[in-house]
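Changelog note: in this version the structure field was regenerated for every chain. One regenerated record is shown below for reference.
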Amino acid sequence: MLDLAIHAGTEPVTLSDISLRQDISLSYLEQLFGRLRRRQLVVSIRGPGGGYQLAHETGDIAIVDIINAVDESVDATRCQGQGNCQQGETCLTHHLWEDLSQQIHEFLRGISLADLMARHDIRQIADDQDERRELIVRDLSLSS
């Protein structure tokens, strides 16, 4: 999502470009973006020149919403919050890890894509990834 936000413009961003820049398999990205689309965090544009665009402004998309959309967990408990950590019973430190999970959740709720984009090093990292992508594309076209 951060890659999509950084490269957002008038044209949709393709998953193949994100795949090359982030070194994430295309099939996995397709699964993730299907979930993000169903949660209305991204919009799919079909056809030639198609790809994905953010469905909301970057300041309106909290990191916790992205994590929830793709069914990831920020649960620090061993039992995934069920309280059956130790042979079906609550372990001594269950509440500690449960509290930590809640703190992580609240922390991520307070961070938006815009906040991440505002970090001083993000643009340089994205530029480096763009250069790597261009080299990969060039190498692939030369070997064809």
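Spot check on this record: The longest strand covers residues 42-45. Residues 2-123 form a domain with the Arc Repressor Mutant, subunit A fold (CATH 1.10.10.10).
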